[in-house]
Amino acid sequence: MAGARNYDDPCGVARALDVVGERWTLLVVRELLFGPKRFSDLVRGLPGMSQNVLSQRLRELAGAGLVERRRLGPPVSGQVYELTERGSALRPVVVELARWGSRIPTSSRAGLSPDALVLALLTTFDPDGAEDVRVALVLGDDRFAAEVTGGRLEIVRGEAVWADAEIRTTAAGLRSVVFAGRRLAEAVAAGDAEVRGDAEKATRFVARFPRPAPVGSGERTRGLAGGAERRDP
Known about the structure:
Layout: H1 12-20, H2 25-32, H3 39-45, H4 51-63, E1 67-71, E2 79-83, H5 85-88, H6 91-101, H7 114-124, E3 133-139, E4 142-149, E5 152-157, E6 165-169, H8 171-179, H9 184-189, E7 194-197, H10 199-206, H11 218-224
Parallel strand pairs: 3-6
Antiparallel strand pairs: 1-2, 3-4, 4-5, 6-7
Helix pairs in contact: 6-7
């Protein structure tokens, strides 16, 4: 990317970081992994990032051939940003980086964006004995279709064509059920979630995501987080 800092190192890692190593860049990619988004949706998913920096990162990613802008046709108007084929090739890299990072204890109390939460589902899914199921996830204004087939989980942005169950909540609400030990039935009873369709399948689905084992052990692990031992993805 013209004008960007680079490592002047022929190693493939260095050349990759020349393109996606700037601060926030991979998080922009994360927000687009599951499908196109409007600029306003990207702003909502990256609340700590200024709109000026977001615009700059999108220009850089477009210049590198990783992101393109597309105008939506009627009846919906506006423009969206989406990953190109080359940008989508970063998916396994981001997924594995998220899986690696999920084992690092954190003291952050910030929330996860819907896309970050869905990425966490991908990286923590336990395929052992998982039944085939389709679940629609409605997280506020964000909609995802999750499908387990043959022990493999796939998630895409958008409305599910059909689903065994639909879970309607917020990113924080689903995170509390999946990673904080709250029972789905408790969230429903409290009015924090709604389940449509097969409630038993929905309950079994949200139980398929064990919290990652933290890296290290004992005092060394606790010291990484300044005394805190949080393991949330």
